[in-house]
């Protein structure tokens, strides 16, 4: 049998439990909207601490490798632009540079061939030229004469490697494009063009030749 003091103690204990159970959540008690999301710092740290040490090291290495990866085609490609229009040269050089390519410039077909002959024997500090963008209508030597001489030099062994060359022209008639391809150009890019089109054609030729 309980005495009066014991009953009073039970009543006070029950009242205390009821008040705690009905206590409203304050702002600090509300769960964070980010709680449970992947990437929250505390949860990720807790999970990471449960990984074996070897796995934690492997994960960190993979992240570093992923963040420093770069397109190998762009790293390896030195582009020669053969174009006599200074505005066109400035635009294409800037666009290609922003895409990650190294760019050299020749102002006519003769100068372009001289650069290629030198590159075949002694590449510049920019690396060996990987592809050529060549205008058709130029002074001193036009694009058709230049590509004809280049392909002949490759056949005779004067030039050891075969350079992929894209004709850049405003002439898009069927008979003209057929003439360009028959002369030795690998592809044709018609002005006005978008840099993405030029890049896609360049990389298609580079992958084909790799």
Topology:
Layout: H1 4-21, H2 41-50, H3 53-67, H4 72-76, E1 78-82, H5 86-98, E2 102-106, H6 109-121, E3 129-135, H7 143-156, E4 165-169, H8 174-183, E5 187-190, H9 195-209
Parallel strand pairs: 1-2, 1-3, 3-4, 4-5
Q: How would you explain this protein's 3D organization?
A:
Residues 14-42 and 53-70 have low confidence and may be disordered. The protein has 210 residues and is α/β, with parallel strands linked by helices. It folds into two domains: 32-69; 72-209, Rossmann fold (3-Layer(aba) Sandwich). α6 (109-121) packs parallel to α7 (143-156). It has a five-stranded parallel sheet, sandwiched between helices. β4, α8 and β5 form a beta-alpha-beta unit. It has nine helices and five strands, in the order ααααβαβαβαβαβα. Helix content is 54%, strand content 12%. The protein has helices at residues 4-21, 41-50, 53-67, 72-76, 86-98, 109-121, 143-156, 174-183, 195-209, and strands spanning 78-82, 102-106, 129-135, 165-169, 187-190.
